Amino acid sequence: MAQYNTYNHVEKIKTKDTKRYLWWLPLLVAVSPIIGIKIYEATGNPLFPWLTPILWYIFIPLGDFVFGRDDANYRDSRSEEIENDVFYKWLVFLSVPLFYVTWIYSAWWIATVANSTTAYLGVTIGVALTNGLALVVGHELGHKNNQQEKNLAKLVLAVPAYGHFSAEHNRGHHKDVATPDDPASARLGESLYKFILREIPGAFVRAFHDENVRLKRKGKSVFSIENQILQSFFITFLLYGGALYTWGPVILPFILISTLWGWQFLSTSNYIEHYGLLRQKQEDGRFERTRPEHSWNADHIVSNIMTFHLQRHSDHHSRPTRRYQVLRSDDAPQLPTGYAGCFTMAYLPFLWRKVMDHRVLEQYNGDILKANLDPKKRDALIRKYTKGDSNE
Amino acid sequence: MNKYVCPGCGYIYSEESGDEFEGFPAGTKWIDIPADWACPSCAVRDKQDFQKFED
């Protein structure tokens, strides 16, 4: 019989924060399109405008392979100390202006300096990936219970034009996670592409619906200045509008590609974070409480550093306000590698399903009816997996 | 005036101060909070999971 968890976790306790200074690395990634441009200008090597995509799609998965997992946690008292150390949150705060610097510098460079389409495209996809990282930072900030961090979240989410994220994610996704009601939880049998087309509009509609409900209680219109989503999109309008006004239509492909690819980055994260997992319905009709077994995790250290521990996802869903530096590695479903490698797998649906479908089934001891199934494939999946063949 | 605490994250709803951001003015009674309202801090727990909080 299959194990309850595919990865048997033996808890390791550590007292020293060995990752303390590694948390600078995502900030370096945030400006990596500029670093790539500068090296390209110095050397003429046409690979360097592609530095950020090469980092994300090649070197980070390779780093995960070489450096492996870090699944150590802190004792509660030590954890509290590290959580309250302001060094960590200031690193996140510092990253916020960097996303603006990268976006504006890259836009200026491709509009006025870039001399080839491949350099234009490399930098654009690089900025798409830093936009993805801006979403990770917006996620970390948006979960906090103070206005300072919530405002910074709005500011940083304006760069990838995803100002509705906090409303959608905190009140929507966290409430409905791993249920068929959640547009941001992927279903078994659903391809990434089908998921993106369901998630992006679904998230947008849910965010505005929830914000509208909140504003109505206050007697305000959805178009009120208090609308948190519109506040962020207003900053996006200034940023994108300013770039279009200054540099003209040459900047349009940059804006479209970097924005849409950045959204894809977020959607792909959501796709892999809960694929096929389902909270069971209780007798009273409510879904069971969100538990560690409702998220996929990856303890791979390199990609975990790059995503501010987002891959310790079960703990994040159990305690959403906990700061990134002390998120715990849980005895919970494990992805085969970090997000960077999983992204590429998810781009190839046949590969993703080959690697993941049997992992989902193992979570439910082979009982396909307990998984979150794509309704269009439900009958076919049940036929396929009730023949006792859970490895295909 | 009563207080209610989220058993997941410790968010406290106080009837006395309400929750301005959520659209519940000071003095809004617990009974008047919508049944489908979830904890605004963690969204892991719903209204019916909240427990009465004694200072």
From TrEMBL, chain B:
PROSITE patterns: RUBREDOXIN, RUBREDOXIN_LIKE
UniProt keyword list: Electron transport, Iron, Metal-binding, Transport
SUPFAM superfamilies associated with the record: Rubredoxin-like (SSF57802)
Matches recorded under Gene3D superfamilies: 2.20.28.10
Domain Rubredoxin-like: 1-53
PANTHER family attached to this UniProt entry: RUBREDOXIN, RUBREDOXIN-1-RELATED
Family: Belongs to the rubredoxin family.
Designated name of the protein: Rubredoxin
Organism: Zhongshania aliphaticivorans
Underlying gene: alkF
